């Protein structure tokens, strides 16, 4: 149950002293072993409560009954073909979601494994689009301690709780291990992409243990950030008077989550997973030094009849603290039988002198080089560009992770320090900002190599028999034993420090490296790649940290705008038929089972009639264009920008310059009906007209700039006259019961306008008045501002319950509203608004949504769609706080004033001004917003 004081306790910072003794912090104050002051924290003995999923009301269910029947039929049809429907609200996972998540492992796009705050490895997403939430309990770190004199011995798994079969007579599996850790004196500290677990005298009262988890998520580093690997660095401090022998054990099951470990035919070499998916190989390793001795057990089982059982393995460690060195010569084991689980283990042992310190490093790597979609082609993941396409690369990855993790940490700290040290920012914001980035690893990301088949770029690559364990030695700078290859270390320079309130994004030219193609899911429950109406919110994170990936996604959508797919699709909301992809319309997504080739996996509504997708495309393209100064990007996507704008003319049915909605949910709020002119879509349209005009002017397409200006000058007064009521913009211009509702997202267009350095769409007093209304009603009237901004609120102060979505709080929208407030000079309201998401979702007294932030929750804390893309919009707040110099230094003049209208008014010709655009592109070798000073 959720604590009753959730909305009465306000905690702005979590000083480590409240979780750790000062003595422990001082002892770990070297080699990054101590957790940072700004981190999300949790005690290991905290209860991981089961999360409460949303349910529709009776009225909502009646309204959606036809949709439900059609959706159920569609889900069953897809299942008959061995496919999972992109949206399936009927199937419940066997593992109920709980408040147990932590920082995920690995880089982006090569499969991910999450790790709960109590140490369990869970949330497996090795195969694209498939997520196994259950932990694999055999995957553990354990510790064995003996002291001189032999009267103090400890053996324990380094995870709290008891295994379900603990104490069962004759058990040969992991329940026979020592599950002795209470977690009372152990704490977890998270600052993505790193995490620290501190065992402050557990299980040995005289031994302090720090384990820090490091993954290669490094902004602007497009090589290391693609690697499927992570490092665990243990720092041991002996506070006793006796020398201690400490053995750390890392065990790993041959599994990719779920029941895959029971399917048989697994060996400690590449193995096939079910349903013809590409093979996956794991490697676990430890670094052997002068003081650290590494041994391995290549194979043990979890049941009686195994060559070596889990119980026998544990007893060997209790007795000897290590395995036989002869195991290095054992070769591959026999393949497993169905129902049998194979595991491997690496042990690292060291003596720690009284008041002495010791460091032991482990690594985990996995190699699944080929991505295969159910209805489409196979692709090589990006990391294969550097490691080749063999599954044996897991050993090389494990080796290189141990070689390079210190450099990774240095680069991560350079990136994070300016924000962490900024005294203007609230403490909760700092660690929530970084921790929300978990989604770029755990959000089902796929990053492929777009070039020709990969070749192995490492030196001295050798093909060796693969086992799941590998030992790393330091008797030579780059040597390993027979279970890995001789190799050379590689290095990628990265420079991404934020030196001031503004930032300079990387410069571009035609010879920039090919960063491949990138996909990320809308959410692990909504399995559609790069859902564009949601990417509108999330894309600030990519633009800020990996701008080349952001531009590559925009280019994919630009190509899609000009394409058409005439295959017939049944739209489930109304039961009508249409074509899959209409030319000129921005697709909702890039697909599910055949991305890039079969777009628009979403089939609830016909999204070619949605009113927000095309304006969002134009706004994102212009923001990216103005921020990066990439002229070739602007020229490449310009035909698609024009096509997207011209496509929208059909929705201006009364020729007033303003688009109208069509009386169904034709927008990202796909259950919330809109009539006539809407605040959300209308504002996006006005912003898109201004952005397209500015881009046309900069690219030399004066005819189109004039067309946009003419439309804008007609549309803006109509928008204000129909929707402005003196304090905010009404939800829509219709006459329904919610037409005058206060929509939290009514100024989404203004958000992008200000984020791109364009003049405001409305007078400042109207912008601030609308935002203040949202703050006073949508934010503060819901649990005193401790939950975020509810989507819809009636002017009488009651939540708009027109539909499921109007009564929800959307986490990503709340962050977007906060960003808009920052840009309007309302910082106090902005951080109070966003803090509601932290309080309800991330705080110690909250609902438990950390590292799985959902799309939405209701005012009573029921979630919808965990691990969702949109909350990445918190980086829209950071963007507002430190926009690039290209935008900040742009002349503050009205773009529209530079466009001279012809006497004939609206153009009738849509001929593309190709010559003018190409001429400008050729001349502009160095481009910035200062182009406004040029005469075209």
UniProtKB/TrEMBL annotation:
Pfam families: DUF608, Glyco_hydr_116N. GO terms for cellular component: membrane. It comes from the Eukaryota. It catalyses: a beta-D-glucosyl-(1<->1')-N-acylsphing-4-enine + H2O = an N-acylsphing-4-enine + D-glucose. It is an enzyme of class 3 (hydrolase). Its EC number is 3.2.1.45. Residues 516-877 form the Glycosyl-hydrolase family 116 catalytic region domain. GO terms for molecular function: beta-glucosidase activity; glucosylceramidase activity. One of its GO terms (biological process) is glucosylceramide catabolic process. Keywords: Glycosidase, Hydrolase, Lipid metabolism, Membrane. Residues 102-408 form the Glycosyl-hydrolase family 116 N-terminal domain. Non-lysosomal glucosylceramidase that catalyzes the hydrolysis of glucosylceramide (GlcCer) to free glucose and ceramide. Belongs to the non-lysosomal glucosylceramidase family. This is Non-lysosomal glucosylceramidase.
